[in-house]
Amino acid sequence: MMHLNLFLFGCGHHKGAWRHPNSSVEQLGDIRYYERLAQTAERGKLDAVFFADGQSAGNVSDGSPWFLEPLTAMAAMSRATDRIGLISTVSSTFYTPFHAARLVASLDHISGGRVGWNVVTSMFDVEARNHGYEAMPKHTDRYRRADEFVDAVLKLWDSWQADALTFDRQGHYADPDKVQPINHDGEFFLVDGPLNVPRPPQGHPVLFQAGASEQGRELAARRAEAIYAVAYDLPAAQDYYRDIKRRVQEAGRTTSVPIMPGLVTYVASTEDEARAKQRELDELLPVAASLRQLGQYTEQDCMNWELDEPVPGLPSLDAFNGPKGRYSTILRIIETEQPTVRQLLGRLAAGGGHCTMVGTPEQIADKMERWFRNEGADGFNLMPPSLPAGIEDFVDQVVPELQRRGLFRTEYRGTTLRDHLGLARPES
Amino acid sequence: MMHLNLFLFGCGHHKGAWRHPNSSVEQLGDIRYYERLAQTAERGKLDAVFFADGQSAGNVSDGSPWFLEPLTAMAAMSRATDRIGLISTVSSTFYTPFHAARLVASLDHISGGRVGWNVVTSMFDVEARNHGYEAMPKHTDRYRRADEFVDAVLKLWDSWQADALTFDRQGHYADPDKVQPINHDGEFFLVDGPLNVPRPPQGHPVLFQAGASEQGRELAARRAEAIYAVAYDLPAAQDYYRDIKRRVQEAGRTTSVPIMPGLVTYVASTEDEARAKQRELDELLPVAASLRQLGQYTEQDCMNWELDEPVPGLPSLDAFNGPKGRYSTILRIIETEQPTVRQLLGRLAAGGGHCTMVGTPEQIADKMERWFRNEGADGFNLMPPSLPAGIEDFVDQVVPELQRRGLFRTEYRGTTLRDHLGLARPES
């Protein structure tokens, strides 16, 4: 069976989405908006909703994905739903392991075992400078720290054995032999423990990770129980998929580690209608600002490019001296899709290097099935370009098609996120 | 009008409460238990529910007040209630100001402006050693840090002006001139800002503090908008009340700062019945462990003291060489209440140095009124010895009596915690 998460992000993953006349932008501070999104995802029997997170306000002029803080929002969302998993990003660079372990464990209790933790190390100096650092620690240091951070968090979750709570009114509230300090004293952290939250219902809330760099992939292979990936097309997805599965095996792990690339979909009953939805969002982008940003990405003067003409020729990757990640994505989009300038701006504004599928439910299910059956993906992290419309479309149109093909559940079998993902509950 | 908070604490503030056959101990990990408590408090039109917090597991053998983490629990509780305020303790010693400001601001949005923040500096080495410190920083350093912490948090809440969000689909999501960095660079914290959560509905969530030491009182006088106090009897309450009100005035503040001492109540339709409730809980205390603890407090060998005889004579405060705070409380309890040994153990096991009132609704309302009318209290932080029974008793029996006397609201007038407490909304 395929796994599907809904990746929540403001009014949707398309940067122009909030500008749509019917957008949900006025509701971004209203918890009921997020509750309804989770309910829609649950109606579609999705595995989980997934919250990204960042530690700086960003460019507030052009829309912001941040409003409510994910852990507090998810606590409320858990009470408006019964089965769906709830995954929050928590940075290992800014919290202490004790706070992170405790907040996530508490959410696991509140939700009855439906919580996942997406471990990130954060990236930007503007984030670091909100938390006491002059600048972001180096990549290698962040990952060493993340590794120790995860280690300490797991030990804290293990500091209460599953049967520690006895509630024996003539004796112990908890068996003191089954609640033990962890005495963690490492390079980055001192944490005595035990945690002040009993063992989470799932044993360990599910560990997500999105490793792209060498260090990130190594951390993912050793630690992650499910992986959020970035893959522009099937060959790129297969490269990543095989590499991670190999690393997981080499790390001596025998568990399956579902890999879920991000996926942007525009779905409608005809392909034309689906493309019209995409075009409608693309046309909402502020042209001058988008061209200026494209100019930064490509180191070209794009301000006079014709919006509805094909993208002019660009230097090869080798001949390009700026940051290569985004530039190589741009070259691949141009090569495979031959977009107009406006279409390129739209692609970059919705999901960037992630895969985009546009078409009928059958067409999209065909592509998803191809990825799923050919070592490209164990599932997808859905990145609807606009919310709530994009997830309603997916749940109402694509999910039934996947179910018809026997690729996706028609009912939840279990009650925890581990159940949905087919992951075993760790012993204490 | 009087202000009343429900101070949540495990199965109640009496250390023996969880041992009662009908106790709620099995529900401490169940968010519905806390939701129902908040609903009961809201039925009684209380100002708020109040969460204490600690950063270590404590003695898990003898019951624990910690299970769910307060901020995540309160997010859920806010969705099960409409009007009642929700106050969480957040330590200024272990979080970064950005995390604290963001979590509390997010809760204020989720709850529609019903959140308060109880600033504490934490006290114990076992807490420090869960968050990377070898030992707790010195008292003076903790308070200097707390002062700067509050300063940074307030600046972060102010970093978005109230009308910053424009949602102008042809222009700005937020007016960039109304979202500004704070560039805080102090002795303890570097925080650039702005916050990544827009200005909270209350402007600033309400600042609670419980200042007992000289530095604590100074911080409370300068910063707190409402104060949680400890007062054993009316004269002690008056001393504290007058001292804080004077300090607030000297700090140049013209706002009222409600002072709310903790209050343990045993209420029933007859005084005998109320005393029986108290005795029932006192008898649940494990005798040997309680006598051993009393022995530590008093530096006496108490193990052979007769439980139902008066407490033997103790050395005067001057002649006592151990920690004096708790010892002076014990002397006062003996002096004013002439308790048996068992009663003394019970008093210490429920609220310690806080005021205890035992009797009929009329008797308790009489005493509360006397405190309220004589510069002892602007309200009370209710510490029911057992939960949920203790708050149900209070809401069903004492609240109607206070309402009859015109001392307590019969309906909420506003929708925010500031409204309930009569506090103005800070300008941005």
TrEMBL record, chains A, B:
SUPFAM superfamilies reported for this sequence: Bacterial luciferase-like
CDD domains per UniProt: Nitrilotriacetate_monoxgenase
Keywords: Flavoprotein, FMN, Monooxygenase, Oxidoreductase
Gene Ontology MF terms in the entry: monooxygenase activity; oxidoreductase activity, acting on paired donors, with incorporation or reduction of molecular oxygen
Residue sites binding FMN per the record: D53, T89, H139, Y143, S213
InterPro entries: Diverse_substr_monoxygenases, Luciferase-like_dom, Luciferase-like_sf, NTA_MOA
Similarity annotation: Belongs to the NtaA/SnaA/DszA monooxygenase family.
Protein name per UniProt: Monooxygenase
Species of provenance: Oceanisphaera arctica
